[in-house]
Amino acid sequence: MAATKNKSKVEKTIVLSIMLIGGILVSIPFIWMISSSFKPESEVLAIPPTIIPDNPTIENYINLFTNMNFAVYLRNTIIIVLFSFLGLLFNAMAGYGFAKYDFNGKEKLFYVVLATMMIPGQVTMIPVYLILNYMGLTNTMAGIILPGLAVAFSIFLFRQFMTTIPNDLLEAARLDGAGEFFIFFRLVMPIAKPIFAVQGILTFIAGWNSFLWPLIIANDESLYTLSVGLSLLQGQYANNYALQMAGAAFMVVPIIIIFAFFQKYIVEGFTMSGLK
Amino acid sequence: MKPFKKRHPFLFIGPAVALLTLFSLIPIVVAFVISFTDMNLKGLADWSAIGFVGLENYKELFSDSTFLKSIFNTFFYVIIGVPLVIICSLSVALLLNYGTGKIFNTFRAVYYMPSITNIIAVAVIWGYLYNTEYGLFNYLLSFLSVENIPWLEEPTIAKISLIILAVWKGIGINMIIFLAALQGIPKSYYEAAEMDGANRFQVLFQITLPLLRYATFFVTVTTLIGWMQFFEEPFVMTDGGPLDGTISVALFIYEEGFRFSEFGYAAAGSFVLFAMIILVTMIQFKFRKTDTEY
Fold first, then answer.
1. Among A51, A135, A136, B53, which residue's Cβ finds the most Cβ atoms within 10 Å?
2. What CA dihedral angle connects A114, A120, A197 and A210, to 10 degrees?
3. Structural domain boundaries of chain B?
């Protein structure tokens, strides 16, 4: 018995050390980003490089807001995130509709929704641009927001979860005279909290990171998102790596913090969706 | 009361379905139609300037050396990148599944982080790391007396650099899927194996990996589809260069569509990509069928 315990202890140490080495390799880019973002411009190109800045400064972060319009980009990004939560609500409602109502052609319509997941983004990218152009929505916030609101995969996950809600519960509420929307908002949404948590985080991340579509649609700098702004910064200050790293950190750190708090829901969400 | 009640399902599914119709279904039709036309910037302003050209766009694509190069590059990415991502994410998942507790949760977060990191931030950070003169990678390699590597300046090395970056970014999501599958394997299987005196490797190859077959299939199909559309990495890191050395099919379509405004030509390219994806996916499903007959 003692021998097996000893063996498993050795094994555990090996597993942990491999994990640690891999973890360090994976985090090098993040560590380097944070460290460089606090270096003055002269130190960032120094050879040999310093891991901990000799003269730490927050000047780079201040420059993001004084030299660049990061306040505007931040505002636009937050607007996009907020509207993407409206999209999340639409997806949840559709998932509920497909799960708990019967109507003609329901199955077929649901298959069509699933089929849209298989269309590569490159195929729809150009026509969506042409459609938005026809509607006069290029270079507007609406044009940036609208195409991303409905997500087939999200509808699918909501439907999967909501089919597990007992029908008796909904019937009982109806007998008590509750309206359909009252049932959805007051009864179904609280029950579906776990799936809302996962989808909420993923929606936030997607909205915060949105890049390609804002880049295609927005011509005015006043509509740029943080990622478009960061790519502008990369072009304008090609050699100022300290400033670039500060911009990158400004984008990445909020996501890391949010993820650190909610990571358990994401893992549970994948287990829930039955991808086994 | 009755007819009102019947309207409810449509009130619930209406907004999402309308948006999907407008931005996913109609575009497919539009893309198909314009792929047979010479639509460009002129056609955007004046529809009467759009001419029907039949299969001309498709014919032109296959004599376009940039397009052929982009197909070659895409297969280069897929053939090296996909197995690499699957092996890495499976290994990480196996490591993380070894135990429970705070350490393992922390490492799970660490390995997942790259996949939720904004692509531009990634480009900014990795552009700095890959810098030939000031980059960290070349500095670290100089200790092993390796000459400065032109990470992004030589076509083949640049492709490999992008693959490294994409693998780094791609581990997270697949690792989570493998982890969910691993946690779904009943403990009794392992206990039975232990009683039969199976060693670690026997358990891994005879029990764990076979039981992960469905997860592996799922990951392989989705990863392959994703890598066939390899786009963001060359777009933000190299812009397809040097000498079109890193251009992918998806990037080619984007360039034709939004840089040169050749909408018809780009749409034709996107259908070639679509057909390639369908073909590869169908082949995988076919192989899987023969596999399960055993």
1. B53
2. -150
3. 67-292
Same domain, A213 and A144: yes
Q: For the domain that residue A164 is a member of, what is the CATH number? A: 1.10.3720.10
Q: B67-292 adopts what CATH topology? A: MetI-like fold (1.10.3720)
Please check whether residues A6 and A96 belong to one and the same domain: no
**Cβ of B87 under 8 Å from any chain A Cβ?**
no
Nearest CA-CA distance, residue B140 and chain A, Å:
10
A210 → chain B, closest CA residue? B118
Q: Which of A23, A45, A96 sits opposite B12 (nearest CB)?
A: A96
A91 and A9, same structural domain? no
Cis peptide, bond prior to residue A40, ω within 30 of zero: no
Minimal-distance CA residue of chain A relative to B31: A127
pLDDT at A87: 93
Complex ipTM:
0.82
Task: Name the closest residue on chain A to residue B4, using Cα atoms.
Answer: A180
B111-145 tens-digit pLDDT: 888 988 888 888 888 888 888 777 888 888 888 87
Query: For chain A, how many structural domains are there in total?
Result: 2
Work out the minimum CA distance from A127 to partner chain B, whole angstroms: 5
Flag if A101 and B8 touch (Cβ within 8 Å).
yes
Residue A234 to residue B10, Cβ atoms within 8 A? no
- Put simply, whether A142 touches B (Cβ < 8 Å) is no
Q: Do B13 and A251 touch (CB under 8 A)?
A: no
Per-residue model confidence as pLDDT tens digits over B198-216:
888 888 888 888 888 888 8
Residue A244 domain flag: no
**CB-based contacts of B69, cutoff 8 Å, min separation 6:** B244, B247
Rg (chain B; Cα; Å):
24
**Residues A81 and A134 occupy one common structural domain:** yes
What sections of A41-184 are H helices per DSSP? 41-44, 59-66, 70-100, 106-115, 121-134, 141-145, 152-162, 167-175, 180-182
